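Why do we care about 3D structure at all? Because function follows from shape, and shape follows, mostly, from sequence. That is the central idea of this module. The next example makes it concrete: a single protein chain, its amino acid sequence, and then its structure expressed as tokens.
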Amino acid sequence: MPNVFNIQNFSTGDGRGIRTTIFMGGCNLHCPWCHNPECFANKKELSIDEIMKKVLHDIDFYEASGGGVTISGGEPLLRFNEFIEIAEKVKEKGINLTVDTALTVNIPDFDKLTSLVDTFLVDLKTADSDKLKYVIGGNFETYLSNLKELKKRNAEVIFRIPLIPDFNTNEKDIRPMADIINEFAYPASFHPFHRMGSSKYAELGMNYLYKDVPLLTNEEVKAIKQLYFASGVKEAEI
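And the structure:
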């Protein structure tokens, strides 16, 4: 059965319209600002019937708002077969499907994946391969290779940029990230760092390395976004 640690109905921040977000457990990364640390701690298996019961509860809202289902995590593509099992059931009902992924895992079947997923929300955390490897635990070559496979299949992709203070918000970090976005010609959405997951770390007995990192001001966020826009990046409409 799929490892799903949470299902959130009436979600408005994980794609277009009103959505149900399915959070799959497990992740190959260790972002120090992660706001879903329970993906590492809570192994909760749900049957497909249990998952679909929650999904179908809000089907009228999906149809009215242009929404659907988003599968997130953790890293949902880490357990590829479990992801496909859920995705197939969602698409059988004619529901729009989005996946929220860091895209740093090996994907065994791109044709199958792109036949099921309507929109890929792809994190772009850094364009620095050393930062990705040593701070987060990802492989930049895998990331770029996966992006190329999606591009080859004309997948709809939206880059999701987490704005993390002193990690990817300086101009020297932004310029190469903007270059990647422009190379693939996908729009981007911007997500300022927040500490809303800090209480989860305390509950799980885990150390939250970003607990004292100050939030970006509205002015700082605006200035960061302007650097992207000045480089030709288009903001996604979601």
